[in-house]
Amino acid sequence: MELIDYQSLESRKNTLREQWMSAKPFRYIVFEDFFKPEAAEMILQHYPDVTQQGWGNTTYINQKNKFVMTEFEQGSLLQQTFDELNGKKLLQIVEYITGIEDLVADPKLFGGGLHQSTKGAFLDVHVDFNYHPDTHYHRRMNILVYMNKDWKPEYNGYLELWDMDKKEQIEYIEPKFNRCVIFETNEISFHGHPKPLNTPPHLSRKSIAAYYYTATRPEEEIAADHNTIYVNTEGTQGIVKNFLSGIKALGERIKGKIG
Asked: Is the pLDDT of residue 47 over 90?
C-alpha cells in the first residue's frame, strides 16, 4: 500500500503551485492530509518512543531536547515512509508545484529523518546549511510532515516563518497531525520553533523531515558554503534561554569526555 495520498496531491497541485508562486518573501506551502488517513495512523503507531534505542540527541546553544533518527529496518513501515518521500513519484509532483526541476533526494537523510522534541525543547529561527556535505549539491527545499494530534496553543512548538529584513513573523504554523509544510531553502528562508515546548511530560512534538537538492541553482541565489545560521527573535528572553542551553551543552561535552 502506498502511504502518500498521491491522488489528492495530483488533484490539488495547481492550487498548491499558485500558493507557492505567490508566497513572499520566500516560497512555501502548507496543506493537510499528506498521507492517506489510514497510513498516517499506522505511521503514528510505529513512531518509536523517545526512550527506545536509535535516537540521537545533542544539546547546542540554539537547540535543545531534539531527538533524531535516520536509520530504519529494511522493509519496515518507517523505511517505506522515507522511500516514498525520496521517491520519483513525489519528486515529480513537487517539481511541478515549485517549478524547481531535477530535484535530488537524500537517502542518507542528512539533517532529516524522524524528529521528536520533548518538554523544554526549542530550535531557534535560522536558515539551513546550503550544501550537502557529501555531494556538495545545493540544498533547495525542506519537506516537513507533522504527526501530532490534539496540539494545544499553550504547548508552543509552532513552526515560525520569518521575514528578517522586516523583522516580522509571517507564519505561525500549528504542527498538527498529517499537515505538510514545504518551503524553499535559501539565504532568506528563516524558520524555527524558538519558544520552549510546554508539553505534558508524556507528550512530544513529532515530525518527519526530508530535504531535496539540485546540482545547480540560479546564479543570483548562490552563496558561500555555510552551516546553519541562527538569529535571536526573542530579545532578552532568547539570550537567557541560549545561555542556559549553552551551560547544558557544555556539561554534556565534559561528561562525554570524562565518560
From this structure: yes
